[in-house]
Hints:
With 109 residues, this protein is α/β, with parallel strands linked by helices.
Amino acid sequence: xxxxxxxxxxxxxxxxxxxxxxxxxxxxxxxxxxxxxxxxxxxxxxxxxxxxxxxxxxxxxxxxxxxxxxxxxxxxxxxxxxxxxxxxxxxxxxxxxxxxxxxxxxxxx
Length: 109
């Protein structure tokens, strides 16, 4: 059994989000039908190509995670740029997108 991994484009800016969301939403719904019948119960999303983005990328990812949750699945985001993960921490949503990630200790700063 092969696993399909959806991909984010290299650029996710506010102006692109409505079109990207329409496309991603359709892909997530199609994948959820297949994943829902598999053992993993997680949709895979590759963010490795993402290079040019703003906080709208977080909105897109949070919407995707919410859609997956509504389908009884989880969203697993792979290869997210460190800058995106840091932005998620600043906005206080990192644990929503990467629930298994170890929390960053405030004492380490």
